[in-house]
Amino acid sequence: MSQALDEVKIGGLGASRQRVEDARFIRGRGNYVDDIVLPGMLHMEILRSPLAHARIKSIDTSKAWAIPGVRLVLTGEMAAQRNLAWMPTLSYDTQAVLATDKVRFQGQEVACVVADDPYIARDGVEAIVVEYEPLPPIVNPVQALAPDAPLIRDDKEGQTDNVCYRWEVGDAEATERAFAEADVVSKLKLHYPRSHPSPIECCGSVADYNSATGKLTVYMTTQAPHIIRAAVALVAELPEHMIRIISPDIGGGFGNKVPVYPGYVCSILCSILTGRPVKWIEDKTGNLVSTGFGRDMYLTGEMALRADGKILAVRFHADTDQGAFFSDAQPSKFKVGLLHSAFACYDVPHGHITAQGTYTNKAPGGVAYRCSFRVTEAMFFQERMVQAAADDLGMDQAEFRRINLREDDSFPARTPFGFLVDSGQYAKCLQMGLDAIGYEDFKREQAEARKRGRYLGIGISTMTEPLGAGNSREYDILGIKMFDSAELRVHPTGKAILRTGAKTQGQGHETTWAQIVSHELGIPADDIVVEEGDTDHAPFGMGTYASRSTPVAGAAVSMVSRKIRAKARKLAAHLLEVSEEDVEWELGRFYVRGAQSRGVTIQECAMAAYTNMPDGMEPGLENNAYYDPPNLTWPFACYIATVEIDPETGVWDVLRLVAVDDCGVRINPMVVEGQITGGLTEAYAMSNMQFQTYDAEGNIVGGNYMDYLLPTAWETPGFELHEVVTPCPHHPIGAKGVGECAAVGGPAAFVNAVMNAIGHTGVRNIDMPLLPDRVWDAIRTGKDISGAPPFRNA
Amino acid sequence: MEERRITVTVNGEPRTVEIEPRLLLAHLLRQGLGLTGTHIGCDTTNCGACTVLYDGRPVKSCTMLAVQADGHEVTTVEGLGTPSELDPVQEGFTTEHGLQCGFCTPGMMMAAKALITENPNPTEEDVRWGLSGNLCRCTGYQNIVKAVLWAAEKQRAASAAASTDVTV
Amino acid sequence: MYPSRFRYEAPRSLGEAFALLAEHGDEAKVLAGGQSLIPLVKLRFAAPAMLVDINGIPELAYHREDADGSLRIGALCRHADLERSPLLPGNHPTMAAAAPLVADPIVRTRGTLVGSLCHADPQGDWASVMLALNGEIIAQGPNGRRTIPAVDFVVGPFQNALHPGEIAVEARVPAARGTVSGSYLKLERRVGDFATAGVAVAIESVGGQVIRAGIGLTGVGAGNIKAVEAEQSLVGYTLDPDVIARAAELAAGAARPKTDHRGSAEYKRHVVATFVRRALSGYRAPVAA
């Protein structure tokens, strides 16, 4: 009779295990970067440019130096002496660390002051006098591409215009032929506004250069500590083994904490120059005006349709506003990230995409905000296009999707842009969502309400997106391939420590990784401690972003556990005195085939690894695994929102939001659901209130929490969650990425619902966020509403 | 530099410190007293990560001067519960998965504590309204609301049990 | 996030406070709830040389209704005290509607009505309420007290009518006659946001006929606006749809909004008209409009 352990009881796969990291967080005992105090530590504050585009005529730091307690005033000129005024970006451009020649966006780093405490450092910043000669600012691609536009990147040799890249994918000719055969061509144009990930914790670092040993230790808010070590080695020209990056508890990342920022570099340089630890803690304004944003893309496209609703082809063009430096933190070999994952869930035979990036006088970098590098724009455009097409055909939006979604038996399927979509039950998910929301009933209610002057709307968003960068063929950072890693050490008593190259920022790795080990080895999850983020301890990995942890590091955890189990099997055979072939595994123990009661536990095997190994076997029960995934993972989601608009004010409220997520096998359902409700809230935020824009002078609007609005518990609707499980065919435990799905697919559900509610007006598009005045204006005028900057201001 | 000697009762313990008047209460707690559970998440009094109880009422400690706490009582997250026993709010947050990155959590819990102390039997709407001065980016609030309702119920059960003890 | 240096005193009585203000003149600024002043100081948008903290003067922490029905709000009465006050819902519906819509719940435990009036932020909520209710501010200095009508209290953005050395010790809402109704409607995109547009309406009527009307507007001008013509258009009439529509139109005409990231001028004007109409029609907003 089986003596296998009950997997859920030991905290294995499928257990909604309470999170182990909570124990410290709920007691206020987390260890975030601002909590770190080192002996002799100094504090650094940054002076930022008030202007969007200006030549620096002079910088006078004498008054700052004169303040008691000020230890160092660092300018670009001083950084240049160390060859550190500029640094390479992850997109093979350069970015100013401290401005020397010009400032190129409002909020750019100009100088920094190091002092005994941050109050004095701020006094020092205030005492620096900079003389600027203003230059004309550029705040959108149209201005950037104008023939007489000032050249923003005059620092770059050979750069004669403000174009940053051009890119295309697909088959233009085949697509053109398909359009020629179309019964209906549906068109759409929109701007996906600039948004900021805005974790509540801002960026920061404590750099500690030990001049005696030559070792540099940097505590920093990074989602990818190992890559940072490589980057610091390159930028600061320090030997990599003398650099230790420690990513402590991180107060949210959402993609904001992937890039290398000037503040980090300055804190390192200041530590080297002062010989003391230097702490830099960014303020919220600094975070919002200078660090990695997301989106800011202009999309124009069309869809070729047969009268019966079949999509024949799509083509579209994207203009991306990159800001002053091309510093996208994205690891794909595609200049515009994974934009070409658009329409992957639909059976679209032909497609063609072109893209062009431009420099502007706006904050640079980032681009991945809770998404895999432009998939958010891709899926939003896709789902807005789908709704427009259904409307143009006079077809029900659900029916249009039913006709075009890939069928269950069509996998694996190659998209016209080259992706291999490998699994899914799309029709089932859609139907589950429609049933949950009561689709037909709602449409009746909507028609009734319309007669009484009420504006109800329903919006659907269905999408699959590629998560888990990468595979090493197409994804790398600084040439380093996108794998990830895990190292597992099982101690003599059967307890274990697991380390990975990922870095949790709220995703709960300390809880969920242990569950994978538990699933593979039958060691109770409570007996496994998980550590990440210290490059001196953890194996090299590429970090946590783009929903890649479970697809890649999670897979590595499985694989290393299996290596351990393989060795344990040999130990079991030795202990049971049978040949290895006669040993069977059930959760937590090996037994002799045909004699199930004769067995040894994994813990007994662990002890034997140190005390009683067979002749010729290396002692110990430790191993590591590096995992290079064969493909991305393809979760699918169906989000359906219902809304009511107050036509007099344009204010709209969410009535219900139904989410059906198929992210494959769920390791910890509670944690997965937390990821989904979090993502849905960001989706709601982007559709309703959250955006950054710039006025004609290049002043940022949305540079603090008074202007950059994040929803509170009050505005945020409740969410109804459902699941379908289609295991990933190539992931060791069948899991797929999930963290970003709701933030990627969600916005279109809300926007489609509002557009559906005002369908009778003929308005085709209102750019996000759907501010009350925009909605009111659209209803009143019957015209599309653009939200592109420059933003109107009195 | 003009320094002041103040005495603040923090988590029940009187603490005497010399400070500059310009020092914010949040910085006194974090740097001066080493109570780093109180976090700072914005510059504009919006995020609420720094929420503490000041004479029992929730305040944003980034928007008070430390010197104003002279002679007053401040309770921080470190003062919730005891080493051996969690406060119902803490228990609720972990049971209902009301936190992810943990950064907003101390402020959120202090606001929640004040809320259920004042209103022991809140509705979901009461909780959403009462926590609307605190921002969270990870959870989407749904589980935070559940956590607070859980804590309120636990607290009601505890006080019902206590009053039964008295009457019996 | 780190204020400049300043000196700080916490007087225990009004007398001490006046002495400090007299001694330090223009350099000194009064600190009450601090929920506007401290953010400005943190961002170094304001750098007073001295703060006189009046929180230690317990006699300023009150709000009460006088025998004649007028409401007195002391300088240390917090927004939250008003939000929870049993005095407001019956006799002071406009006040009751506004109290929960000021800032956010945590800020409300500390911020004060009088301090908010003194701060004179053009987007402040309470000033509109005071304009609608014909409120007054009691200023006290070493030489005694004077009463400043709300309509005269704000002299410009972030500028009030206090003389150097004076402290606003109380706000007063005069007693209403007849049947009282009113509301404060605020269009805000999320809790804690400033109003895109806000409307305070206070109506006193006898036998269905309006005997006094007050309308104050938030966020639609260089300061809060008292829509005098709209108010006058209501007096002597019953609130039928035509009368309401006329008042709404006049109020919208009194607004001087600017286009910004909260909305276009045209939109804000429209919201004013809509909210005046709704408030006069007895529209009851949900707890957050």
From TrEMBL, chain A:
Domain of life (superkingdom): Bacteria
Q: Name one GO molecular function term.
A: copper ion binding
The source organism is Pseudonocardia bannensis
> Known EC number(s)?
1.2.7.4
Q: Name one Pfam family in it.
A: Ald_Xan_dh_C
Q: Does the keyword Oxidoreductase apply?
A: yes
- InterPro entries (UniProt xref): Ald_Oxase/Xan_DH_a/b (IPR000674), Ald_Oxase/Xan_DH_a/b_sf (IPR036856), Ald_Oxase/xanthine_DH-like (IPR016208), AldOxase/xan_DH_MoCoBD1 (IPR008274), AldOxase/xan_DH_MoCoBD2 (IPR046867), AldOxase/xan_DH_Mopterin-bd_sf (IPR037165), CO_Mo_DH_lsu (IPR012780)
Q: Which UniProt keywords apply?
A: Molybdenum, Oxidoreductase
The protein's name is Carbon-monoxide dehydrogenase large subunit
The Aldehyde oxidase/xanthine dehydrogenase a/b hammerhead domain covers: 27-136
The EC category is: oxidoreductase
Would the keyword Oxidoreductase turn up in this protein's UniProt record? Answer: yes
TrEMBL record, chain C:
Which InterPro entries does the entry link to? CO_DH_flav_C (IPR005107), CO_DH_flav_C_dom_sf (IPR036683), Diverse_Substr_Oxidored (IPR051312), FAD-bd_PCMH (IPR016166), FAD-bd_PCMH-like_sf (IPR036318), FAD-bd_PCMH_sub1 (IPR016167), FAD-bd_PCMH_sub2 (IPR016169), Mopterin_DH_FAD-bd (IPR002346)
List, in alphabetical order, the Gene Ontology terms for molecular function in this entry.
FAD binding; oxidoreductase activity
Q: Which SMART domains match?
A: CO_deh_flav_C
Looking up PROSITE patterns in the UniProt record yields: FAD_PCMH
Its keywords, alphabetically, are: FAD, Flavoprotein, Oxidoreductase
- The yes or no answer to whether the keyword Flavoprotein is present is yes
SUPFAM superfamilies referenced in this protein's UniProt entry, alphabetically = CO dehydrogenase flavoprotein C-terminal domain-like, FAD-binding/transporter-associated domain-like
| Organism superkingdom | Bacteria
List residues of the FAD-binding PCMH-type domain. Answer: 1-178
Protein name in UniProt: Xanthine dehydrogenase family protein subunit M
- What organism does the record attribute this protein to? Pseudonocardia bannensis
